Amino acid sequence: MRLPRHLAVLPLLLTVAAARPAFAAPDVRISEFMAGPARDWDGNGTFSSRDDEWIEIVNGGSAVADLTPYFLTDGDSIPRFGFTGTLAPGAVLLVTGAESVTWERATTHPVFGLSLGNTGDKVLLWKVTGSDTTLVDGYTYKTQEAGSDRAVGRTADGTDWKLEDALNVYTGTTPPLGTGCPPTPGAVNDCGITPVAHETWGRLKALYR
Fold first, then answer.
1. 140 Cβ neighbours under 8 A, 6+ residues apart
2. What is the DSSP code string of 1-65?
3. CATH of the domain at 52
4. Would the CA dihedral through 9, 11, 12, 17 be positive or negative?
5. Taking a C-beta distance cutoff of 8 angstroms, is the pair 181, 162 a contact?
6. What is the H or E stretch that residue 70 is in?
């Protein structure tokens, strides 16, 4: 399979067009991801720390979105997955590490999967328009957000991110704190965003002295 022309010139484009995402959430945007899987998230019956990573995007706009110009990278800006087809308004699309590997092999990219770091990294969504490549959305996550089976999700309007730690409770005090929400790959993120503060008994007693 030949590499699409707009992805073949990415190394040059990414060095000159690494624009920051706008403050307002774009219509096509990252909605949820998991950097530290500890179980079989892609459903193939076998756990793989590479293949079971996943990133979800959503079309938060009111019109059908053409996904052909979009691709994903991590912090090193090497293309990890290029989209095709369309996405209906309000619909989500899940990309697993295994799908990333298949795409990388088919397009002769280095085969690393989504390559999300387990001590913090970036999840980036790019769009190619003519000769321009623009960073339209992204999130920089911290170590606790990459813990085993913890996901990072976004509210439906795209304004807030939350740590989804129902499968591996985060008890630290460094923000973002856990919400107790479960990961929801391939589904709408409808769990609340109120952080859960895990207090020790000693700290609770000190509040009432």
1. 75, 120, 121, 122
2. -PPPHHHHTHHHHHHH--PPPPSSPPSEEEEEEESS--S--SSSSS--TTTT-EEEEEE-SSSPE
3. 2.60.40.1260
4. positive
5. yes
6. strand 70-73
Kindly report the number of other CB atoms within 10 A of residue 116's CB atom. 25
Condensed to tens digits (0 to 9), the pLDDT of residues 73-120 reads: 999 989 999 999 999 999 999 999 999 999 999 999 999 999 999 999
Quote the CA–CA distance of 95 and 57 in Å, as a whole number.
8
pLDDT value of residue 4: 54
In this prediction, residue 163 carries a pLDDT of 96
- Residue 143's pLDDT band (boundaries 50, 70, 90)? very high
Count of the separate structural domains present in the chain: 1
Q: How many CB atoms lie within 10 A of CB 97?
A: 26
Please state, as a whole number, how many other Cβ atoms lie within 10 Å of the Cβ of residue 11.
Answer: 11
Name the burial class of residue 20, with classes exposed (0-12), middle (13-18) and buried (19+) by CB atoms within 10 angstroms of its CB.
Answer: exposed
Structure tokens at 148: 């085993």
Give residue 65's pLDDT band: very low, low, confident or very high (50, 70, 90).
Answer: very high
- The domain containing residue 27 runs over which residues? 5-206
